[in-house]
Amino acid sequence: MRIGILGTGAMAAALGGAWVRAGHQVLVGGRDAAAAARSAAGAGAAGHGSLAEAARYGEAVLVAVPADIAPALAAELAPALAGRTVLDCTVPMAPGAGGPALTTTGGTDSVAARMAAAAPDARIAKVFGICHESIWTLPGPAFEGAPLAVPFCTDSPLAAELVAELITSMGRAPLACGGLDRAALLEAAAVFAVGIWWSGAEARHAFPAPALAPGATDDEP
């Protein structure tokens, strides 16, 4: 698969490297040519170029820029993004009095929904934002005997198929979570998890699998 990356930061390099290791072709795009070249070299990408060149490069386009500028960038590149699956990994987060805070309003408002409005002919998928970038540098991580589950939201069946194929190629398990009206839940979950990590705790400890009551079976609701 050919994947263009918009952005030159840590997430761009980590995901780009994971995709290169999975056998995909990656082109990193940025406004700063030197930064794009460094990020591409670190990921082992096929090359680097401008944001517009990365947007036009392949079937999928990763948006790995700060959340507050992602919708405007989608609007700027809307003609190039038309007909492509756009992977939104942004997390709308800012420091708050009690820890990291969500910068969207919640509900159905999300960066992904704003990007969909800005680039209506693109197929937007909210994905890859839950995990810290360091997780994507691991070779096919498994936790407690199971491959890493990667949740995603999209309104497009074509995007869902491509995202599932991409996640599977990385040795992870795709986890469909509904349409873009649920993307805000993924963004809020990411902010919640970051707050837990910053406190020195483990987010996974808050979500154990439900235990069956005595006499209950897996078939019961």
TrEMBL record:
It holds the Pfam family F420_oxidored. InterPro entries: NAD(P)-bd_dom_sf, P5C_Rdtase_cat_N, STEAP_metalloreductase. Residues 2-92 form the Pyrroline-5-carboxylate reductase catalytic N-terminal domain. It comes from the Bacteria. Keywords: Oxidoreductase. PANTHER family: DUDULIN-RELATED (PTHR14239), REDUCTASE (PTHR14239:SF10). This is NADP oxidoreductase.
